[in-house]
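Dear support,

I submitted the protein below through the web form. The confirmation email said the job was done, but the results page showed an empty box. After a refresh the structure appeared. I'm attaching both so you can tell me whether what I see now is the final result or a partial one.
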Amino acid sequence: MEIEHRIDEPAKRVFMRVGEAPTGAEAARYIAGLAAGRPELAGWDWINDVRESRGVVDNADIAMVAEAFAAAPPGPCWTIYVSHDRNLDLWCKVMDALFQGRRLHRTALTPEAAVLLLDALRTASPAPSSS
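What the results page shows now:
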């Protein structure tokens, strides 16, 4: 599968890249598997680079991740999607609702811009919980 991730323990961030081949369901299962293996990751910030992804994501895929992250401590925490898809901003609003405000979703055009955005959001809010 063309999905890779790295974990930045001190910053409590997960960086993930989804390549062209994985489906939305495969990416959702991958994320849910990471959260099952390390439940604290559900309360950390994520940067997901989906610029190469061609997988279609539907509500069931998002619901699977929301369920996997349901045990996260009260937020705020963020997922920043790196994408050139202008419609993803609308999906972010849907995801905010599915995650019931515990996780907020934003977009950025580059990984560097995603880090800067997350740093700015973190300046205004406390760091994610380590539990």
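Response: this is the final, complete result; the empty box was a page-load delay. The mean pLDDT is 90.
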